[in-house]
Structure formats: C-alpha cells, structure tokens
Amino acid sequence: MKKIWGGAMASLLLVGLLSGCGGGTDSQASGGEGSGSKEVTLKFFISQPRFKEQYQTYIDQFVAKEKADKNVDIKVQLEMPNAENAPQILKTRMASNDAPDIYSLHAVNEAPDFYRAGYMEDLSDQPFVDKLLDSVKPSVTIDGKVLSVPMETISWGYLYNKDIFKEQGLTPPNTLTEMKAVVDKLNAAGIKPFELSYSEAWVPQLFLPLSVGAIVNTTNKDFIERMGKNEGSFSEMKQMFDIIDLVNANGTDRALEVSADDGAAAFATGKAAMWLQGPWYADTILKSNPDIDFGVAALPINDDANATMIDLSTSTALAVSPTSKNKEYALDFINYVLDDKDSSAFYESLKFNPVAKSHEFQTYPWVEDAMAYVKEGKSYQDPVIPQAVKDEVGKGLQSYFAGQMTQDDLVTALDKAWKDYNKVNKK
To answer: What superkingdom heads the lineage (predicted)?
Structure first.
C-alpha cells in the first residue's frame, strides 16, 4: 500500500501546545522558566488525516509520559496532509532541509528511495525492534536495517457487502468470468455492482498492484526485474484492462467527482455491492454505518483462479529523520508506538492489524476473510513498483475513464515513467 490513503484535500495543520509549554516554538531544547524542565518541539508529518483523533490522543499520552519520565515539556506540530499530496510535500521538505522529526511513508513503495537518499534513521538498535512479529519485520527492513516502525499492515483485494451478496445468493468470484456473472446478477436486481470514487488518483491506481501482483506471481514472474533494466513493457500487462473495463462499465455515477471518503460513505449505506478499496477504510465505513457487514476478497484479473490472490503489505510506517534536532525524543515516540501497555488500544482504535508480540486485541472479520486466502497459499507480497509509476497510472486511469487516453497511451506513459525512474535512481 501508499497504504496512505485519502482524506480531506487540504492539509490539516494541528499545533498542540501541550503540558505547560509556555511561549515560543523553537525546535531546539530550551530551559523552561521556573520548572527546571526542558521544552522541545517535535514535528510530525502523518498522511492519514482520517485518523486525526486517534493519533492526537496517542501523542497526548506520549507527551504526558515524557513529562512524567523525563520532566520535559513536548510541544507537538502535527501535520496531516492527504495521501494524494503528501509524497511530494514530504520530498520537498526533505530536499530543502526542512524535514519533520517523525514522518509517515509507505514501507514498500517509498522507503527504498528515502533510504537511498539518506532520509531514514537506522532504528535497528531501538527496543521496539525485538517486539515486532517475525512476519512483519522484513517489510520495514532494507539491507538488514530496520528503518521504520510499522503502523498499517494490510491484506487486501476489494471490499464487498456481505448482506447484499447473501441476499442475491452470491459468493466472491474466483475468475473474471465468474465476476462477470456476479455483475450481471447484481445489475438484474437493480443493484450497482461497484462503487467508483476516482476524484483522487491514488484510488484508481489500486488496480495496478493488484494486477501486477497477480500476474507476476503466476505467469510473468520476472516482469518487475526486467522493467528495472528497461527490458520490459506494460504491453505485457494489458490483460489488466479486462477487469478495469468491467468495473468502470458497471459502477456508480460521476466517478471523477467522488472522493474516497465519499465513496466510503456510499459503500457503507449500500449504494453499491463492491468497492475496489482496502480495509484501511474500515474505520470510515463503520462510522457511516456501524451495522454494515462487509468482507475482503481477492480480485479476479483473468480466468486463472490461481491468479486470484490477496495482496499482503505494510503500507504506513513511521520513520525518523537523521537530521532531527530532538532525535532523543523522536526515538522515544517511535518506541512508544509499540509500548507494551498502551499500543494495543492504539492499534485497535485505528482498526489496524497486530504488528507486535504484545498486541492482544482480536483481529476483525474482514481480516479473517483475507487470511482464508493466505492460508490457502493464495497471496503475494505487495509488488515493488516505483511510486512515480503508481502516480502515473492513477492520473492515467482517470484520463482513461474519461475517454481521454487509450490503453496504448497508458502503456506508453507507464513505460516512460518507469524508464525515467530508472534514469534518476541508477544504483
């Protein structure tokens, strides 16, 4: 995932002046008047604005803990841009020496580039590392170094309304032909098969990892490796347009005007039976309709049932800037994220999966749906596709949906985006 995933179009800047901080916003540690305590500012950059309340609550707990443990007053600047704009904002900050102390990024898609650029503190010797589940640790590790603390591990494909499926006598399809039959039955019953919410380019972009992941794990296993050498082409992936066209032709209206948040609300209220989206939207969906019964299923790409698999990934992770002027306290927070006492409630409030050995909360029904595929061996690790290519396919699929680009146009654009990436990121 960049799982990182939607929200209001404008950045939300929340500046909390907490725990008797006094005046001033200097990020350097400074003496507090009269109390003998230090005052520091930590800048957070987290591209999940829909979880503002949960993050703010946990940060407040951290501030209180630091005051009690170290007699330090932490002032927090919490910036929460939407996922559409966050990557470019963050890269600009990093390049201009204005890095936040702690920032979120996609552990699979973005971390390799940030690591090569020297933007990630090596966290291998931090206490939280020994707490990580063995199945999760590799996703935040590069060159043997643990570089971030995982927040959102995901197992995803598409979401479906279990009540609608049950009423219509349907089960999640295993092939593209079976999906067409599901679509026909839903249409015949006057039910929109798919919720379409394409106003933010990252949403149609989701077709890419699902399609590439299915194909490279069945018939075209060296595609990504060859693309990295300028020896492949997305013309080899044109079968992905079969499922894209089926979804687009059988979805809700005005897709390019509907945001992901609006899509979540529409799906929650039964406006469509399926939504090409991940369970990272569970919290938003349940806020709109606490009684909805939804599940996760693998998206059929073609008529090979073996290619219908669940995508496993660590999307959102938190990293520390090596240039942080208050690194001691930034590292304190990173370790507090997996605090033995407090983190279970934090992750459960976000409706994320357990990532630490101390996490004791039960997983959710939609997680169990996805895990059923995993137990059958029908899953793959999220394919490592350059973020620049994902950005290009998101914009391209918006244009494709609007009839402004052909399949061949999109293939050409994606090939160019990957070659441009290779040119800039020669190892």
So the answer is: Bacteria
Rounded to an integer, the average pLDDT of 160-183 is 98
Q: Which pair of structure tokens corresponds to residue 4?
A: 């990182």
- List, in order, residues 6 or more apart from 340 with CB less than 8 Å away: 131, 358
Return the CATH number of the domain spanning residue range 12-152+315-352: 3.40.190.10
CA distance 38 to 221: 55
The per-residue pLDDT for 141 is 94
Rounded Cα distance, 111 and 202, in Å: 18
CA torsion sign, 291 to 295 to 296 to 302?
negative
Inform me whether the pLDDT recorded for 328 exceeds 60. yes
Question: Read out DSSP for 47-102?
Answer: S-GGGHHHHHHHHHHHHHHHHHHH-EEEEEEEEE--TTTHHHHHHHHHHTT---SE
When pLDDT is cut at 50, 70 and 90, the band that residue 10 belongs to is: very low
Tokens of 13: 């800047």
Say what the pLDDT of residue 87 is.
Answer: 87
Which ranges constitute the DSSP H helices of 222-322? 223-227, 240-249, 260-268, 282-288
Assigned token pair, 169: 């006598």
Q: So what's the pLDDT on residue 85?
A: 84
- ∠ CA 422-424-427, rounded to 5°: 65
Quote the CATH superfamily of domain 155-312+368-424: Periplasmic binding protein-like II (3.40.190.10)
Q: Where in the chain is the domain with CATH 3.40.190.10?
A: 12-152+315-352, 155-312+368-424
